[in-house]
Design goal:
This is Potassium transporter. The protein is mostly helical. 70% of the residues lie in helices and 4% in strands.
Length: 658
């Protein structure tokens, strides 16, 4: 017992240390888990033989992940993906397998081994790709959706690949007799353990009926029985029981799929799709998500811990060469297919680099290939290292894509497109029409104020034109463009650029050449606000301040505060902020060269919080405003006074009428 606890402690501590560090340096959580595995495995030897066993358990995280993915997809959405699912996915698997197999044949590898290697390396890592895309926000891009289509097809393709591999086995008396049945039995694994009690050895007709029956059970349970079950469990009011029910559903479907020789991952994916419209969908996601993250993290750690430095050092040249060749071959196929299927721009590179690695199913296929005598033990050991190394390099490819390729492509796209000719000049010039600038522009247009909208992102300008918002492509930080846009006659310049440095530079230049022009600027936070004011902006608005203040007022109302009181408290809060703003800004500007926040600024901020507390305690009930826009609440008995005045007025009119 102590040994198991010690090992669990080692894995958890490694993850707790390495993953936050990796995220902090922009490397992603996957690379953090892989490095953690390397540290506790080959580097320090803190973990050993149990790694392979843990890896089999952790692979269940892929099953849970596909269940959660299924919950996000409705059947009609899946139908809309059919062209890329079958076309792009099928051509990727076939093209990658052919290219890798052909390359292996050039190096005098037996054709049966070459075909097996091609099929194994044609698959990619579902775990790494979906996890990384989710973290980086690429899941809903065209490249992310295309990658998911290919991954889903690959998961389906695992079943026929496992069934086909026995036909590539080296002819031995003890092996030939069980070729077909061995493949069918292992086809149920699809990245998990193959089922010892599989029904795949039944007569073909009965086995086919069993498969249809299992799929039907999944659909019936998901469509008709799950909702009453979850309602019954929800009435208990015990969250842990609901979690246990959700896990029982996933585990039960996995067991059923394994029993009939199908992929547990695909079975749970189907169940997720069926439950996509369920009223309990979000509850299922929130309950199962932690298990997915934990198991996937454990899986990545075991991959890193499974790297053998001895094998790596002894065969360094061969392993690096094969790993690079596999990544290059798959990337080439994916890039060509992205052209065929019209995946453009950065989405093309997201698709190409995301799926260039070998996948976790490769470990299962390699083990099976060794078992049925397709590959030798020495070859399996080396190829498993190639799979691990390619997975290890994938986060680095993502970094290359995110930090180097995508910014260059965006810059090149903008540079290739010539700046628009500005044929209309507005009363207000708006620099930047992202989520902030668009609202400002719409409000002004709705009130008949003419605007000239500038943005340096061509795609954003095109999108605005599609919804009939006239805008111009160009770099608003260039004074020549601002002159063409009519800044000499404009009344206002609104700076809503997303880039802080460019926004500050723009304010400085405009105020230097047009000191009388009123400049309004959007700030991200206090520091940015102070810098923009120091640069010369006349009015600066923090992008989240007023929305947060509004929500704070709504929170007070929800807690039972009278709307008048809540509005007064908001106004008092805002007034205290305004009163203390000059002092805070002056201190920040004078000490901005220091790292972090200065001691004097901290003291002023603490003073500000104290002033806020005191302002909230003041009684303003005696300062009722009779103005139309006044928000100070009326004094006690004000309603009775109004009613009495109204009654007197009515009586007076009646008497005068008599």
């Amino acid at each position: 017992m102590t040994a198991y606890l010690g090992q669990a402690f080692v894995y958890l501590v490694a993850a707790v240390i390495m993953v936050p560090l990796a995220k902090r340096f922009g490397l992603g959580s996957v690379l953090g888990y892989l490095v953690a595995g390397v540290v506790i495995g080959p580097l320090t030897g803190l973990v050993g033989a149990e790694t392979e066993t843990l890896q089999h358990v952790a692979e269940f995280g892929v099953v849970i992940m596909l269940f959660l993915v299924g919950l996000e997809l409705q059947p009609q959405m899946l139908w809309q993906m059919r062209s890329k699912l079958i076309g792009l996915g099928g051509m990727q698997v076939a093209g990658s397998a052919l290219l890798i197999s052909g390359t292996a044949l050039l190096f005098s590898v037996d054709w049966r081994m070459a075909v097996a290697i091609g099929l194994i390396f044609a698959l990619s890592s579902t775990a790494i790709v979906l996890q990384s895309h989710g973290e980086k926000g690429w899941s809903h891009t065209e490249g992310g959706r295309s990658s998911f289509s290919v991954l889903l097809f690959q998961d389906i393709a695992v079943i026929p690949i496992l069934a086909f591999l026995p036909f590539l086995a080296m002819p031995e008396p003890d092996v030939v007799a069980d070729l077909v049945h061995g493949g069918a039995e292992m086809a149920g694994a699809a990245g998990e353990h193959h089922a010892d009690d599989s029904l795949a050895d039944l007569p073909p007709m009965i086995y086919g009926l069993a498969v249809i029956g299992a799929i039907s059970i999944v659909i019936i349970v998901g469509q008709f029985l799950s909702t009453p079950l979850f309602r019954f469990v929800a009435k208990s009011g015990l969250r842990e029981v609901f979690t246990a029910t959700a896990l029982a559903l996933v585990v039960g479907i996995s067991a059923l799929m394994s029993m009939v020789g199908l992929s547990p991952a695909l079975g749970t994916f189907l169940a997720g799709v069926v439950l996509a419209n369920s009223e309990f969908r979000h509850e299922l996601e929130s309950n199962i998500e932690p298990f997915k993250g934990l198991l996937l993290g454990l899986f990545f750690i075991t991959v890193g811990a499974g790297i053998s430095f001895t094998v790596l050092v002894d065969n360094l040249g061969f392993l690096i060469g094969v790993t690079v060749a596999v990544i290059f071959a798959k990337a080439l196929v994916l890039y060509l297919l992205s052209i065929v299927f019209k995946v453009r721009g950065s989405d093309r590179w997201i698709l190409t680099l995301s799926l260039a690695q070998a996948g976790e199913f490769g470990f299962v296929l390699l083990a099976f290939s060794l078992q049925i005598n397709v590959l030798t033990a020495e070859m399996v050991e080396l190829l498993a290292m190639v799979v691990a190394l390619s997975m290890f390099l994938t986060p680095l490819l993502f970094i290359l894509l995110e930090k180097v390729l995508m910014p260059k492509m965006e810059k090149a796209t903008n540079e290739q497109q010539e700046e628009d000719v500005i044929d209309e000049k507005g009363q207000v010039i708006i620099a930047g029409v992202g989520r902030f600038g668009q609202i400002v522009n719409r409000l002004l247009l709705a009130n008949g104020v003419s605007t000239t909208v500038l943005d340096h992102e061509a795609q954003r300008v095109d999108l605005l034109r599609q919804i009939c918002i006239k805008s111009y492509f160009g770099d608003a930080t260039r004074l020549e463009l601002l002159h063409t846009a009519g800044i000499d006659e404009a009344s206002l310049l609104v700076v809503a650029i997303d880039d802080r440095e460019r926004a500050i530079h723009l304010v400085q230049e405009v105020k230097r050449h047009y000191p009388n022009l009123t400049v309004l600027a959007r700030a991200f936070d206090r520091g940015d606000e102070y810098q923009l004011e120091h640069a010369g902006a006349d009015i600066v608005v923090k992008e989240t301040y007023h929305s947060a203040l509004y929500m704070g007022g709504e929170a007070l109302k929800a807690l039972g505060y009278h709307p008048f009181q809540a509005e007064n408290l908001k106004q008092a809060f805002n007034q205290v902020e305004l009163d203390n703003h000059p002092e805070l800004r002056a201190d920040w500007i004078s000490t901005k060269h220091e790292k972090g926040i200065s001691a004097s600024y901290k003291e002023l901020f603490i003073k500000l919080d104290g002033a806020l507390v005191q302002a909230m305690k003041k009684d303003r009930s005696d300062t009722h405003s009779h103005e139309e826009r006044g928000w100070t609440p009326p004094p006690a008995g004000y309603d009775d006074l109004l009613e009495a005045q109204q009654a007197d007025h009515t009586d007076g009119k009646a008497r005068s009428g008599q």
